[in-house]
Amino acid sequence: MAIEFNTTESTKIKDLKVITPSAFEETRGSIWTSYTTGEVGTLLPKDLFFKHDKFSVSKKNVLRGIHGDHKSWKLVSCVSGSILQVVVDMREDSDTFLQWESFDLGGDNRQMILIPPGLGNAFYVKSDLATYHYKLAYDGDYADADEQFTVKWNDPRINIEWPTTDPILSERDRRL
Length: 176
What we know:
- The protein is mostly beta strands.
- The protein has one helix at 171-174; strands spanning 5-9, 17-21, 23-26, 29-32, 50-59, 63-68, 73-80, 82-89, 100-106, 112-115, 119-125, 129-137, 149-150.
- The strands form three sheets. Strands 1-2-10-7-12-5 form a six-stranded antiparallel beta sheet, with no helix packed on it.
- The longest helix is centred in the last third of the chain and has 4 residues, at 171-174.
- The protein starts with a strand and ends with a helix.
């Protein structure tokens, strides 16, 4: 079984990458690799590497985000359930500022999204339960919630087409 990744550039947002690993399918199910330093690791800037992983388990109709910072690279995927992944360009100097792109992740879709610094990250849970995986790379210490930017999930400047008008939000996201 060869470990291969198909990496494509977003057609909407500069520097955003979509990574699809190859999978070995057989009667028991399937198996695939989500990360190697020689393939996915080379997509990061020189001298930067993934430092830690996080998982988020969320119920149906939960919307998390739009959050981000200006130093973290995030490799995200949905390892169980299904979500609508949304990425928003929040880099004011970018020619794709305030543009967004969405991806259906989870289920039989093994795609991963590599999100560079300055892009907002959000997802909406479509299944009864979903497990979301973040792999994080950054210089220095982790930029936790108090150091991150937060954008209102339904900001009219962005006009994201969410599958609901009444999502379950965190206190942080409701305060906006």
